[in-house]
Amino acid sequence: MRKLTFAMNVTLDGYIAAPGDDLGWSVPSDESFQWWSDRVDATSLALYGRKLWETMSSHWPTADQQPGATPAQIEFARRWRDMPKVVFSSTISTVDWNARLVTGDAVTEITRLKAEDGGPMDISSGTLAAAAMRAGLIDEYALVTHPVLVGGGTPFFTALDNWVKLNLVETRTFPGGVVLTRYETRR
């Protein structure tokens, strides 16, 4: 059975995007960017919702060819392109960059993917993760918390039907007061 992690940058007040889907508050330091790049390299399958897919696929496929691209950006772009991806959406009709599209029930497909043999999966979408949380499918939460309050937007956590008890497995501080906390779901 595969492990499923919900990993995102998050504001101190709990949002993964500010109003208007603004992500300007989440600019990573070199150290935290390397952590994300290593995470992408270790992920065998990434699960995206439409919004984040459109953001990522509009930049990373060619980011390594942009003037001034840093070695870290070049490495991340290569890793991101190579990583298999599943995009969940009922409003787009095609995806590319080593991805396949799922238009049916997300919880059914995520349950099927978890049951397969294979390496770890990451889920990157507030809406998609909310459905997986309510279904009890998430094994780990990785929050990269930025010291900013945005007052609204897309929440990291959603309303749940039941409590989810967690065990802290890692904390790490990055430059600029950014803090990584990783929790495993207690089963």
From TrEMBL:
Signal peptide: none annotated. This is Dihydrofolate reductase family protein. Residues 2-180 form the Bacterial bifunctional deaminase-reductase C-terminal domain. SUPFAM superfamilies: Dihydrofolate reductase-like. InterPro entries: DHFR-like_dom_sf, RibDG_C, Riboflavin_Biosynth_HTPR. It comes from Actinomadura chokoriensis.
